[in-house]
Amino acid sequence: MRRNRIAALLLALLAFTGMSALAPAASAATGAGVCDSASNWTAGKWYPAGTVVRYSDGRFYVATHDNPGYDPVISTWYWSPYTCQGGGDPQPGGFPVSEAQFQQMFPNRNSFYSYQGLLAALSAYPGFAGTGSAETRKQEAAAFLANVAHETGGLVYVVEQNTANYPHYCDRNQPYGCPAGQSAYYGRGPLQLSWNFNYKAAGDALGIDLLHNPYLVQNDAAVSWKTALWYWDTQRGPGTMTPHEAMVNGRGFGETIRSINGSLECNGGNPGQVQSRVANYQRFTGILGVAPGGNLYC
Q1: What band does 84 get if pLDDT is binned at 50, 70 and 90?
Q2: What single string gives the DSSP state of each residue in 186-255?
Q3: Which residues does UniProt assign to the signal peptide (predicted)?
Q4: How would you classify the pairing of strands 39-40 and 79-82?
Q5: What is residue 159's DSSP assignment?
Q6: pTM of this prediction?
Q7: So which residues are the catalytic ones?
Q8: Which of 42, 67, 189, 281 has its CA 20 to 30 A from that of 49?
Q9: Domain boundaries, the chain
């Protein structure tokens, strides 16, 4: 009887302060992080890319591709090991942006661009945001996400919005042509991968046939993030170095703009677009608690 009276008093106090009786538990679950809230893996259950599960041996795995409950230990193309620290964050040396910080950066993002999808893609390019000092790693993560924010309207757009451009991205001079169709290679994903030759190059690097199935970039979150990391880590574009090299070698954020769209934006080409990217970068470095460094403009 006394316990019931105490419980009633607690509920009354919660109601008086405007709090829900479930609020403390929900807050704890959020703080506990991805691994603490992960469910046990179940054979035959559908798992979207980015889902983290606890295997029967107590270890965690993240789905790198959608799958109907394949065994994480056997089906290594569909699953990758996932390591956690207190709170569910990656261990030191892992991705330096927490899920809460990611949500703060992209409060209105499309649900397709999941944090777990991004984590699932990191294994493709482990040097990304994992090279150099803790400051450098945070700066690179902020630089990548700042450019991504600009390209996608804050992770809102999965595909290029100007459909009139779609037929232009097929270079018939390539020996492999455009097997998915004249209008199939439009911009998709965090850095808006476009052109048949880029789909082929990214697919070859990632071991995925994107030339024949470019739609994977808009349907599979992990693949979509991987194509953006492919460009960031391996492509110089109109610049003289990859965006990854620019950040780890101290060339600064401005050099990443040059490598992504410098032929149209840099050297006074479109200062408004450059300023948009820089503003994103300054905001994201602020969220991560790191100085933006010099050479912000191109």
Answers
A1: low
A2: --BTTTTB-SHHHHHHHHHHHT--TTT-TTHHHH-HHHHHHHHHHHHHH--TTSSS-HHHHHHTT--HHH
A3: 1-28
A4: unpaired
A5: B
A6: 0.70
A7: 151
A8: 281
A9: 33-92, 93-298
Confidence of residue 52 (pLDDT cuts 50, 70, 90): confident
Q: In this structure, are residues 211 and 176 in contact, taking their beta carbons and an 8 Å threshold? A: yes
| Whether the predicted pLDDT of 196 surpasses 70 | yes
Q: Using an 8 Å Cβ cutoff, are 217 and 207 in contact?
A: no
- 127 φ/ψ angles, rounded to the nearest 5 degrees: -70, -20
CATH architecture of residue range(s) 33-92:
Ribbon (2.10)
Q: What is the pLDDT of residue 22?
A: 27
The Cα 243–Cα 270 span in angstroms is 19
Chain-centre distance for alpha carbon 126: 13
pLDDT of 15 higher than 70: no
Q: Alpha-carbon distance 141 to 133, whole Å?
A: 12
Coil/strand/helix, residue 108: coil
Cα(145)–Cα(204) distance, integer angstroms? 24
- Tokens standing for residue 120: 């699932």
User: 59 falls in which pLDDT band (50, 70, 90)?
Assistant: confident
* Residue-level length of the chain: 298
Q: How many CB atoms lie within 10 A of CB 276?
A: 15
Residue 111 has pLDDT above 60, yes or no: yes
Fold of 93-298: Lysozyme (1.10.530)
Reply yes or no on whether the pLDDT at 90 is more than 60: no
Q: Give 193's strand partners.
A: 188
What are the angstrom distances between the C-alpha of 12 and each of 16, 18, 31, 57, 204? 6, 10, 26, 43, 62
The Cα–Cα gap between 67 and 49 comes to: 8
Residue 51 tokens read as 């889902």
The tokens for 38 are 């992960």
Tens digits of residue pLDDT in 216-249: 999 999 999 999 999 999 999 999 999 999 999 9
Query: 162 and 190 in contact (C-beta within 8 Å)?
Result: no
